[in-house]
Fold these 4 entries.
Entry 1:
Amino acid sequence: MKMTTKGRYGLRAMVELARYYEKEEFISLKSISQKQGIPENYLERLLAKLRKASLVETHRGTQGGYRISRSPEEINVYDILFAVGEAIYLVECTNNKSLCHMQDYCPSNVVWSKMAQQIEDVAKKTYLDELI
Amino acid sequence: MKMTTKGRYGLRAMVELARYYEKEEFISLKSISQKQGIPENYLERLLAKLRKASLVETHRGTQGGYRISRSPEEINVYDILFAVGEAIYLVECTNNKSLCHMQDYCPSNVVWSKMAQQIEDVAKKTYLDELI
DNA sequence: CCTATACCCAATTGAATTAGTAGGGAATTA
DNA sequence: TAATTCCCTACTAATTCAATTGGGTATAGG
């Protein structure tokens, strides 16, 4: 039961960017990648998703880069996980009933759903500003 | 972020066995495997682990099989997950500090640990008898 | 205008883990 | 002694995740 790099790298990148929120300057991919020890091209794709979700904004050319598009107080971990496509469920069939071989009631699912709900709650309650 | 089959199959098997607790009869691997739609040989290995953790007991020969070794009220989901080797953590470095490239304090880890703790809590609070 | 910077994007490969299979062995019952 | 059923290890297949490659486009500054 493990979070993928999408979620891990995604959060780390956002924490990194959140640190520069006040300065309003753009941070280059290269810089984030080096500071956080994340492969450049791989991180790039995550940042692309974060951009599409309007969590970061970008600027090209010299002095360009990425910066957080809202105050860290307004971005929570759930937003980030959702943006990068890190799904919050422990078993497939919680989301997709057709995958379950049980007709009516699945006892196990009660547990997995409850766990997923807890994770989601933590994600939604934790804002970036608490992490910097 | 997904639970592996170890945890999923393991719990399902235990729920199945818990249903027969009163009867005290042994249920064959084949029967569990068929009812739950889990590959026989694969399930066998999980049951072996559950046996080693003293959660189930076995008997060979005709009319042999597996049965739960304690009352369902005394077995929680955590016991099962632990027994089958389903680790409860979302990122490696929560358990193994040496894997983390941060020297002192890792902001992200705060989140992942909190989530893992929540999962553990649910697992420890949920007993088999609630699921049958 | 031209060049360096730095984001943008798709396709492919590589690596690791998980899931499942095969097959021989040993205990128990009838 | 034969049928049943657990016991155990090694191997293979499948899937998913992680990372790489490489070419494209916008912007700033000289």
Note: Residues 26, 28-30, 44-45, 47-48, 51, 58-66 of chain A lie near DNA strand C (CB under 10 Å from a C1').
Entry 2:
Amino acid sequence: MKPFYITTAIDYTNAPPHIGHAYEKVLADVMARFQRLQGRQVYFLTGVDQHGQKVQKSADAAGLSPQAFVDGITAHFTSLWDKLNVRYDGWAATTDPRHKRVVQAMLQKLHNCGQLYKKSYSGHYSVRQEQFLTDKERGPDGNFGEEWGEVVEIEEENWYFKLSDHVEWLQNYIRSHPDFITPAFRTADVLNALDSSGGQDLCISRPAERLSWGIPLPFDERFVNYVWFDALTNYISFAGYLADECGNEGLPRFADLWPADAEIIGKDILVPAHAIYWMTMLHALGFTDEQMPRLIVHGWWNIKGAKMSKSLGNVVDPNSLADQLTPDGLRYYLMRDIATGYDSDFNDERILMSYNKELAGGLGNLLNRSINMAQKYRNGLLVAGDYDDPENAALRQTVTESLSVYSESMNAWAIHDGIAAAWKIVTHANAFVDSTKPFSLAKDPSQAARLDSVLYHLAEAWVHLSVLLDPIIPTAMATARAQLGWEMPSGFVLTDLKWGMLQSGHQINTPIPLFPRLETNAE
RNA sequence: GGCAGGGUAGCUCAGUGGUAGAGCAAGGGACUCAUAAGCCCUGGGUCGGGAGUUCAAUUCUCCCCCCUGCCA
């Protein structure tokens, strides 16, 4: 089976990352880790989009060269991914010379087969903002506002891509491939957009005198490529597309990886960028229906009901949250409090509460009390024994059921349901302690066999948790396994997980709180 | 105006053609191994409004209202 190729949107390097960036990358990382846990080989690509006008202007304003400017912002992204344990295999930076070569080769290819043409366009141009204005930018009085400064009418030549040639194919492709977009309801937006503006070709250039920070068109050096053929191309250029003819090295073999099993994007860049521009670009390059990527479209984190925006001043900084909650605490919240594909409400009181209640009080405390009792009553020595009863059997059954629900949910991108499935074990095991009362059994020598079985069941339930939750909170689960004295054998896959991972006579380690409880401001 | 999503317990949200569920929050109780954690019990919703299909609708159909987003 081919490797699971998973990508994310590449982030624009004109401002540091916010919680939405973090969510998308953690989602990709969780899925990558889950696929590996299923025994699948994985290639995880993420990166940054570094070209364009905004970067050029921000760099000018900061008195830096564009490259120095984007290097600085890029460092914010890479250090955040390190901190959050987002473990990617490939890094797509659009200023990478290998990427530029592929973009140019692609453009040349399309030019050769007549898919690109030059056309002049005249319109209103804001000198101050260095951009063309459309009717959208007009104020209520029909004029362009003060913020645009001097507005002049100019005529400009540019290169266009014959997107319209591929619209009919795309409509058919979408109708016949219901798996193309997850969640499926987003498909309607795409078809709708195609119906209303399907005849429009795509402008792919800017005159070099206006935009210098970009990739020159190989067949017309007076122009620089504008956005789409640069940014979207990363998904194939860094997967080794045209590597041989471009002399690119150190990249995967394209034939092995492509098509992408999951291109994770936000709902804002589905239409038109990914579902229309990207798909028609691929089609124009000769990619077949079988070589099209699958899109996974996620929703947004709103902040207490409002959209997150710099002007509202409610941008949530993932760095400080990771410091406060630990990286795993943040990863957990980002995965459990949103249904993949939908929006969710980010609430700083709720995130603390869920950390304390679920991670500290539920999951962490279960590990702590289980290990602590094993140490206290048996010096950490677990005995499997022959004793059994319905309560033990019920816990084992919960573990088994949870495993299958987890697996099904995760494969369907319902991470929150996967977590909920694992949490069935947490809840049951905590109740199991209260109903079996190992602390009472310990006082009665005639109950020794039962006590052993209870302690063993708790440890074994936790071994299962440490595997199921590993993709989501990998650091904490590695710590937990160390406390349990159990390591996942190398090459261990989900289907290897069965009751009885711990041998009789297993020695357990010392308990240390996994997620120390955090004080809240309210107290 | 068109399209999409949503309108279910105080809050955040699941869910299903057969007299509604979870987590959190609130109230009460028993316990003590544990991170004052965990466990048990309780309260409370005419599932946005109306009509239709059906033996039966929160779940299907139609109309309307409200919120959000995209497009025009």
Note: Chain A has a mean pLDDT of 90.
Entry 3:
Amino acid sequence: MPMLATLTSRRVFDDRWVFERKLDGVRVLAAFDPDAGVRLTSRTGRALNGTYPEVVAALEQQSGLEFTVDGEVVALEHGRTSFELLQQRLGLSDPVAALATGVAVTYYLFDLLSLDGRDTTGLPLRDRKALLREAIDFHGPLRYTAHRNRGGQELLEEACGKGWEGLIAKRADSRYAHGRSTDWLKLKCSSGQEFVVGGFTEPAGSRAGFGALLVGHYQDGRLRYAGKVGTGYDGRTLTELRARLDALRQDDSPFADRIQERQARWVRPELVAQVGFSEWTRAGRLRHPRFLGLRDDKDPSRVVREEPVPGGTP
DNA sequence: TTCCGACAGTGGGGTCGCAAT
DNA sequence: ATTGCGACCCCACTATCGGAA
């Protein structure tokens, strides 16, 4: 289990923290043993050698010393990490099929867990990074993850302006801990806008009120579907909003797009919700959507897709 | 007493693989 | 051939509970 960062809204840091680019890919631990060779594993412990054969090959060409490293496998597109592009390789376990996708991957290394048979997880982060930089010959798909020693609000704004996903702040003197830790903090760039509520889904299990809102925006006079928003509500909001939705029920979908959703309930498109999300997908859906509140001050017919400033806001 | 961390439970987009239709 | 579903990846968020502060 790798060390995991905790999401935070904190933006003020002193010089005991270092900052790395937040990479939008998949977490991969890599172990090399002169006898057993390279072993790539996912966050949940699954074997990934067949998925990223070029990474295995590059790690096999190292000095011959035992090592365990931690990093993120990403697919780069115009200098930005693209999770959607990487997804074409995620489920593949056959190395031939993986390479045949044509999706090139890069393995950004940012930590060292062992070297030459010695456990390095008890060393401070700066020391581990220094050892990592010397131990690995960074070539081909292998890259060292740069970090900066100062940061906070300004650095995050800079990162978001470049279209990055955000930053990871790490305690410079912390040791490597397996699992979730507050010594590593996730600072995300995010965006949000208003959407028209055109329907909802029924709740499941112990859920009250409804499952998710079906939301959209207008384009050329038609209501285009943008996806479901199923989190961000407290119990009271779920029940109160359900009552308002029931009062707006209608038989037909208000959306211009066909929606693959059995059991969808439709409403007159009169409610406007503020929704936070990380980005638009290629299919025009919201990634990582969450409900932020209703906007009673907004005319639903004026809700359109906003093409925001590059990178959004921190 | 209050706060924090960990966990369970609900919800999202997207892809692959396989079974059912 | 198409559809549905679960398993993985990436996640956000709320509610709850027990222990730390």
Note: Chain A has a mean pLDDT of 92.
Entry 4:
Amino acid sequence: MHKLYLMTRSEENYIKTIFHLGRQGTQDVATNAIAELMETKPSSVTDMIKKLSEKDLVNYKRYQGVSLTSLGNKTALSIIRKHRLWEVFLVEKLDFSWDEVHEVAEQLEHIKSDKLIDSLDRLLAFPKFDPHGDPIPDKNGGFKERDRDLLSEVPIRTVGVCVGVKDSSATFLKFLDKNGIALGNQIKVMEREEFDGSLNIEIDGRNMQISHVIASNLYIKTNDGI
Amino acid sequence: MHKLYLMTRSEENYIKTIFHLGRQGTQDVATNAIAELMETKPSSVTDMIKKLSEKDLVNYKRYQGVSLTSLGNKTALSIIRKHRLWEVFLVEKLDFSWDEVHEVAEQLEHIKSDKLIDSLDRLLAFPKFDPHGDPIPDKNGGFKERDRDLLSEVPIRTVGVCVGVKDSSATFLKFLDKNGIALGNQIKVMEREEFDGSLNIEIDGRNMQISHVIASNLYIKTNDGI
DNA sequence: ACAAATTTTTAGATTTGCCTAAATTTTAAT
DNA sequence: ATTAAAATTTAGGCAAATCTAAAAATTTGT
Ligand SMILES: [Mn+2]
Ligand SMILES: [Mn+2]
Ligand SMILES: [Mn+2]
Ligand SMILES: [Mn+2]
């Protein structure tokens, strides 16, 4: 049924990468894209894809890109569930900041124990989102993307709550910390400068000017959603 | 200074094994002993020992056995600290039983993050002993063996508290559970049958007969220690 | 003391995951 | 429709960690 349990760390990392690339863009995932994201060589990717294909984790035809099978998808969701639960644990229980958790979670996500991850889930009171606002799949791989919009794309006078970041690099997260921007903040878009796309926003009372780049990496949940 | 951080999982497991073998017996550790404990072949052990010797983690002369250097010892203690802290975490925070923790801790002990392990230590309120009664080294590798005796070796009428197990296999631990023997229990040795070494003990009120094998795998801390 | 048994090491092979360089296929441009 | 460029795969090799079989060193038994 599932040989999920005898996957190597490397195999798991490939599956995870293919999952992430597959969900932004409707095409099959390109060898080069995987290589770039994983900081490895295209020829190595081809080797691994063949192995994953043997194991029925990906659909693969030479030169035609790759996509996850249903088994591969399930596997990816299980790894992502672990990654994000560990991130919550590190923030909630060990006082890590949101820019420190990813690196450690990259290691912890490969620990094999169903009991461990389900108990962790319970300890954390079954969180639905990780510290960056990303959804946490449940035990069966089910999860719902939250309705949200990029701050850069909502109309003037939109009001909402900051619920996620698109770029979750430590650099960006630390910038947000420095400027007092955090998940949960109330945000109202006051003005958009058409010349450079920068925004004037009101965030938890304060007034602040943010560049287009910043705005296009912040998600808000508006109040007017149905 | 410390390249502790670029050790492979396999190297770490060898160091840990050499540490454990080295501390029971005054001799240098034999290749065969390592191979047996790690369920690998002596030739593989020789290969790895050479590598560890290159890295100044062990002292090695061909055919003469192996011992940890000061750096190797420090490394071993750091891994054991992680292993035992994770075991405490699993029992205290995730409701694992003491026979379930070892396997998962074998994986978790290889996670690399100083901040992680020190925060975990704090979350657990700096425990001094793991669920099997074994001491947890502090951040600097310091730890004290607790004064304790094998139940099989104390004189009749000795009174003490059960503080540890020698064999911490799941089989033995589950046997103890089934018979209501746990760390913290008050124990008084009532009678020793010289024929087979079995003991009649009073444990938390109850009276019970235990074989020599059982008694020789239980540690007690007596009240009459200086 | 010295042959036999045991332990340990060497030699050579295998698997996994990665690499470089060269060949092949697909895609883009004229 | 060809050709040029880009993407992908193949071929061949390398390092880590393991194995088997054979050789070398040590230990044991008489
Ligand atoms: Mn992450
Ligand atoms: Mn995250
Ligand atoms: Mn253990
Ligand atoms: Mn233990």
Note: The first helix of chain A runs from residue 9 to 22.
